[in-house]
Design brief:
Strand content: 35-45%
Order of helices and strands: EEEEHEEEEH
Number of helices: 2
Helix content: 10-25%
Shape: globular
Low-confidence stretches: none
Length: about 100
């Protein structure tokens, strides 16, 4: 029932804005595709800041890929705990630890 829109080219800190017409609210989704055996996922400082500012409505969405086939996405709500240092451009997160916090 959500109405998604791809906004990845706008560099807003998320890839998809999705409107729920019944609850009348937006969700902000940053999507990361990773090879199934990957150990880390890289997130930009901008993505982290947006995730912190939109804490209740932001999800980091991880899509694992094996043999060119994507698995079901896993949603990690409120994925970030603290602001990145001002001179950081990106941060590598432990992929397994993030996935353990995710929902299908």
């Amino acid at each position: 029932g959500f109405q998604p829109e791809d906004v990845s080219s706008q560099k807003e800190g998320y890839d998809i804005i999705s409107f729920d017409p019944f609850k009348r609210r937006y969700r902000f989704l940053e999507v990361k595709g990773r090879i199934k055996d990957a150990e880390t996922v890289t997130v930009s400082s901008n993505e982290i800041l947006v995730g912190l500012n939109k804490r209740e409505s932001f999800a980091l969405v991880i899509v694992l890929i094996e043999n060119n086939v994507a698995e079901k996405p896993k949603y990690i709500w409120c994925p970030f705990k603290e602001k990145p240092e001002k001179d950081l451009r990106s941060v590598n997160y432990d992929l397994k630890k993030l996935l353990n916090r995710g929902e299908l």
